[in-house]
Amino acid sequence: MTAFTKQFGEYDAATGTWSIPSYFLSLLDSLNYIGFAVGLVIGSLFSQRYGRRLTMFLMSCYALITATIIVTSRSRGQLLAARILNYVYIGIELSVVPIYQSEIVPTQVRGFIVGTYQLSIYLGGLIINSICRETSSLEGNKSWMIPFGLFYLIPFCIMSLIWFIPESPRWLLLQGRIEDAEKSLKRLRQGTISDDEIAAELSSLQVGLDIEPEKGAFKELFQGVNLKRTAIVIGLSFFQQATGQAFASQYGAVFVKSLDTINTYNFTIITSAIGTVICLWSNFFNDKIGRRKLFMAGSIVQVAALFTMGGLGTASPTTTPEKTAIASMMAIFSAGFGLGWAPLTYVVVTEIPALSLRDHSQRVASLTNILTTFVVAFTLPYLLDDGYANLHSKVGFIFGSLAVCDCVFTYFCVPDCQGESLEDVDRLFHEDVPVRKFRETHLPSLEAENAKVWAEKEIKSDIHILGQTNGSKNFV
């Protein structure tokens, strides 16, 4: 927006134009991840101790404060500080929302529901880009203040409605609040399944916690079978960002504007609409098709788009049709990202950790995600701009190579967990089932497993009592 550029940019007397300097773009799109990381850690620890609902309520109250700081910004310093502070809210949101979603929904639709976290990001982007397109023609600072002012809307709605939804039954069970967990589960399932089925599900949740060997200590993430789970979570979080989604989402508009071939606002609306539709399709079908297939398909599309974009950028000079094709490749890349890695990363990283380690695991996953995004966002202006590496669209070769690596990682390391309860996923790991065989492996019911555990405990107890009795006889 011209008014935004004039307010926060610099005037170039030689060209007679305003522009935002590369160093400030780099700071604006990288330092915010400091707030992101802080929010993530605070939100995760608070959510683990005080519950999901209270965390979401307080983060929404905080968001109203940061929205005010953003809207009233008139200097680069205030804008930068406001963005960092606002990302504290986003970090808290990431630490609690996907976990809460995975904990409250039935197994059959877990992939769809948790995937809506990314869908909401796409849909929000589509709405705000459409609004920005309309306000861009307004005179003065209201052209960018109106979109920023919409930051008040969602936090206010969450603040007002959060106490009408139940707390996570799994979190309540971890706190030993069995009666509250039962009430919560009934509110979540009432009218969809019978009371007997609700009771059976609650029993399964309790059994899953009873037979789980983990005690909830952070160090357990890196011990035994949990080390493999943590490695998968870190790998997924790294590759989600390492293939350059920040290039399309954060720098896409700036880069397309530099190509001077297509209206920037139209392009962002088109890519947001494509991402929304593709992500919605992925959410609908990932519980049927499987996570691995969609991850692989999305990776292949990303590889093709990124290498094609890089190849087109090798021409000198780049013609208008080639520039248009480069912009098209960015849109196709976004479609591939929306097909697999965008929504499904959140699905898988919340369903494979041990039940008592879920908050710890989400913290590690999200910090990995944030660190990777920070590195990509910070280096992009220097990779793209003429005064530095001057790669322009040839960055596709870098991100395309990383996309090849995420294909290999998916094939060997990502499990298919659809159709399995969180408790059964935990058992699959403890049974040492290879990740590529999760979908075809069938386990005995949790009730049978619980009976086996109690039988083993009784045998050990009998042996202990017998040993004490024999010891007493020998003493006499």
Automatic annotation (TrEMBL):
Query: Which source organism does the UniProt entry give?
Result: Penicillium malachiteum
Q: Does the keyword Transmembrane apply?
A: yes
Q: Name one GO cellular component term.
A: membrane
Q: What is the membrane topology noted in the UniProt record heading this document?
A: Multi-pass membrane protein
Known NCBIfam families for this protein? Answer: SP
Q: Which family does it belong to?
A: Belongs to the major facilitator superfamily. Sugar transporter (TC 2.A.1.1) family.
Give the matching Pfam families. Sugar_tr
**Ranges annotated as spanning the membrane:** 31-48, 54-72, 84-100, 112-132, 144-165, 264-282, 294-313, 325-352, 364-384, 396-414
Subcellular localization(s) per the UniProt record: Membrane
Q: Does the keyword Plastid apply?
A: no
All residue ranges annotated as the Major facilitator superfamily (MFS) profile domain in the record: 1-418
One Gene Ontology term of the molecular function aspect? carbohydrate:proton symporter activity
Descriptive protein name: Major facilitator superfamily (MFS) profile domain-containing protein
Judging by the UniProt lineage, the source's domain of life is: Eukaryota
Going by the UniProt record, its keywords in alphabetical order are: Membrane, Transmembrane, Transmembrane helix, Transport
- SUPFAM superfamilies for this protein: MFS general substrate transporter
